[in-house]
Every structure is written in structure tokens, then in C-alpha cells.
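Postdoc handover notes: sequence design on the structure in folder B. Input C-alpha cells:
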């Protein structure tokens, strides 16, 4: 029989919810997680690139700082997590990334990215097409140049999720395999969650970490509902037979006709090809068009992929936020925290999110490096006025 109260109740058992729970439990808090399928969600789809440098965008300097710090923490985080999970290997691979250009437009785009990286003090090296092919012989002969980024690595998000779940269970986190129906608010304070089976779980603090569904939990007052939206990504998985290995030795990516395509080779022979980016609400259909575009673009980069067995097609939802950065820490409703909105960087930001949220949950304060990501940046008014209204949920969250 599970205890009915805890210090912290985390709504959402994806990698962000689980890392929050694990880190909080390590600090001595009694923690529970609510999710009908813990370890599922976007981590089952994501490729797991740790691409702080190759996914740099104009105007995202603050996010870059958080991304780089999380990338810096990754090796120690992986070592600690693997041990805490009883030896689960999370597939962390310090392989680097090669971003290439196939035509003059792509090359101009990549040159701009290179200039931005240099202005930001980031390590990347411009290579000719021939130098790119020397590094990765499977690249198309037409590759016109590329950027070598030795610091952008990868991890296997499915194994990462499994390890986090194991680490949580080993440190005493209680996992309720159920839907969260509604936030319970008592005397103007988040006080727990009503589950789909009709039982209520009380907690001193609630963390809403339900990825793209975070804005849909019933009972959350309008003014603190996180402004996250689903951004669909379709991803393919292929397998590299041992006779073809090494097919690629690092992540290879490009922007082809304005769309991002990347190929992420795992040590175990899996090759992940992603990803579309579609604003289509909650639709997670794998479409012929999505698969076609990914294969067409990936084939232009690495023609040999057509020889490989296609083992899986899948679509998931990124939790997009208005400024593409996460929402971390306390909301204007006492007792309610957010850890959501990670958009394209959820896997990369997993170590940092765990550390930040554990600090928030034990001290009540956001650490300096996370202050810019307070949910209050979207609803700066303090909590005043009438008590929040509890409304029935129409959609549960996982
Ligand atoms: N960061 C990779 C993606 O969101 O597709």
C-alpha cells in the first residue's frame, strides 16, 4: 500500500519528471511520481543528441548558457546515474557531430552558424567537403563543406529513462501508475493531486513535469498554467548490420531545403534519423510524407542508408514554450512548481533540470544559473485575488 502523502509529488514520469524525483529523493525528501507509463513519453522517440553548439540559434544566449552547463555536467551525471541504477548503461557516447552542407544555400546557412558560434566563443571547425568525407566516408560526394563540432555528443534516451526509473525506485521514490486528473488546491496552495482511480495523493509541493501535456492538468489556475504546446517530431530507426560497420562514427546533420535532418549512430548498431517539426496539435500519426521527407533528405546526405533495414517509425511531441526555453521552479501558486517546456533540449537539459529542481524543492530558491527560466517570465503578476478555482479535468496527463 502506497503512502497517501509525500513531501513532493511529481506529475509526469518522463525523463524530466524522473530526474526531478531522483535528485529530490537523494536530498532526503519523500517523493512520489504520477504517470500511467513511467519512462515513456518523448524519451521513447527522441534521438538523444546533446547539441548545445550545433543547435545554437540567434537570440538564445541565455538558453545557450544553461545548455552548455548541462552538457558539461553530463559525464559525471551518467557515471552517477548508471551506478545508482544498478549498472544500467545509458549509451552516452562522446562522439562529436558533423554538420554538413549539400548546396550553396545550406553552405551559407552553415557559414552563418559558424560565425555565430565563434562570436559565442564556441569550439567548431570549418571543413571542406573533402575533409568531411575523410572523416565520414559514407557522406555523399556532393557535400560542399561542414562544421566539425567535437563537443556535441549523444545519449540513448530510452536507456536514460529506464535508468532514471530504476534509480528512482532504488532511492525510494513511490511511483503511482495512474493518470493525474486534477491538481488539488487547498487554502490557496497546491496540496496534491486527484488520480484517475479517484484516490487523492497529498503533498507539500507538486511539480508539474508532464511535457507537452503540462498545460492541460485540470484544477491548475489559469494564471499559472504553463504556456507549452506540442510540436510533433517524426523519427525513424534503422539498423546497421555488422558487415557495414562503422557506417557513421559521429552524429551527422544538415539543413536540407530548410528542414533539419540528423543521423545519430549508436554503438549497438541502431541509426536514428530525425526529425520533422510540425505544429499539428496532439496528432502523433506517422505519415507517409514525414517518412518520405526524412528518408529523402537523409539519403541525400548518406546515400548508403537505403541498404539498411528500417526497424521503426515513431512520432512524439516536444513541449514547446514561447521562447524555446524551459520553465523551471516555483509558480505564483504556493506549492506548485514547473519543470517543463524544454522543447528541443529535454535530453540535453536533464542533468541541469534535476539539479535545479532539487535545489528549488529543498531551499525554495532557484539557483542563480536558472533564474532566467522562472515561470514568472510569462505571468509576472504575483498571486493575488480570489482563491484558485478547481475545475474538472478534461484531459489527464502522463
Ligand atoms: N533536438 C532535436 C529535435 O528536437 O529534433
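Designed sequence:
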Amino acid at each position: 500500500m502506497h503512502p497517501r502523502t509525500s513531501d513532493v509529488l511529481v506529475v509526469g514520469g518522463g525523463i524530466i519528471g524522473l530526474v526531478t524525483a531522483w535528485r529530490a529523493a537523494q536530498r532526503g525528501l519523500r517523493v512520489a511520481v504520477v504517470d500511467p507509463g513511467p519512462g515513456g513519453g518523448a524519451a521513447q522517440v527522441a534521438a538523444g543528441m546533446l547539441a548545445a553548439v550545433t543547435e545554437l540559434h540567434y537570440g538564445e544566449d541565455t538558453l545557450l548558457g544553461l545548455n552548455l552547463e548541462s552538457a558539461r555536467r553530463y559525464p559525471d551525471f551518467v557515471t552517477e546515474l548508471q551506478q545508482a541504477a544498478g549498472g544500467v548503461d545509458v549509451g552516452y557516447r562522446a562522439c562529436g557531430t558533423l554538420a554538413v552542407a549539400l548546396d550553396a544555400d545550406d553552405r551559407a546557412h552553415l557559414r552563418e552558424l559558424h560565425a555565430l558560434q565563434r562570436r559565442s566563443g564556441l569550439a567548431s571547425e570549418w571543413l571542406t567537403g573533402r575533409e568531411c568525407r575523410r572523416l565520414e566516408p559514407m557522406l555523399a560526394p556532393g557535400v560542399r563543406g561542414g562544421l566539425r563540432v567535437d563537443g556535441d555528443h549523444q545519449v540513448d534516451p530510452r536507456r536514460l529513462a529506464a535508468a532514471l526509473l530504476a534509480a528512482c525506485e532504488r532511492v525510494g521514490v513511490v511511483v503511482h501508475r495512474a493518470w493525474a486528473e486534477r491538481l488539488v488546491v487547498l487554502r490557496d496552495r497546491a496540496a496534491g493531486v486527484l488520480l484517475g482511480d479517484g484516490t487523492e495523493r497529498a503533498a507539500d509541493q507538486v511539480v508539474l513535469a508532464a511535457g507537452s501535456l503540462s498545460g492541460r492538468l485540470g484544477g491548475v489556475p489559469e494564471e499559472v498554467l504553463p504556456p507549452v504546446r506540442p510540436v510533433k517530431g517524426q523519427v525513424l530507426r534503422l539498423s546497421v548490420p555488422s558487415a557495414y560497420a562503422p557506417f557513421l562514427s559521429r552524429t551527422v546533420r544538415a539543413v536540407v531545403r530548410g528542414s533539419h535532418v540528423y543521423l545519430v549512430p549508436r554503438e549497438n548498431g541502431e541509426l536514428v534519423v530525425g526529425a520533422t517539426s510540425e505544429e499539428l496539435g496532439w496528432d502523433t500519426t506517422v505519415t507517409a510524407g514525414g517518412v518520405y521527407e526524412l528518408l529523402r533528405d537523409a539519403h541525400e546526405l548518406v546515400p548508403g542508408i537505403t541498404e539498411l533495414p528500417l526497424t521503426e517509425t515513431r512520432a512524439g511531441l516536444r513541449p514547446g514554450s514561447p521562447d524555446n526555453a524551459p520553465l523551471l521552479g516555483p509558480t505564483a501558486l504556493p506549492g506548485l512548481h514547473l519543470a517543463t517546456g524544454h522543447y528541443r533540449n529535454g535530453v540535453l537539459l536533464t542533468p541541469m533540470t534535476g539539479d535545479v529542481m532539487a535545489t528549488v524543492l529543498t531551499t525554495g530558491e532557484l539557483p542563480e544559473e536558472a533564474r532566467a527560466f522562472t515561470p514568472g517570465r510569462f505571468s509576472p503578476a504575483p498571486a493575488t485575488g480570489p482563491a484558485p478555482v478547481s475545475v474538472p479535468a478534461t484531459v489527464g496527463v502522463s
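Context for whoever picks this up: Residues 97-150+230-320 form a domain with the D-Amino Acid Oxidase; Chain A, domain 2 fold (CATH 3.30.9.10). Don't rerun without checking with the PI first.
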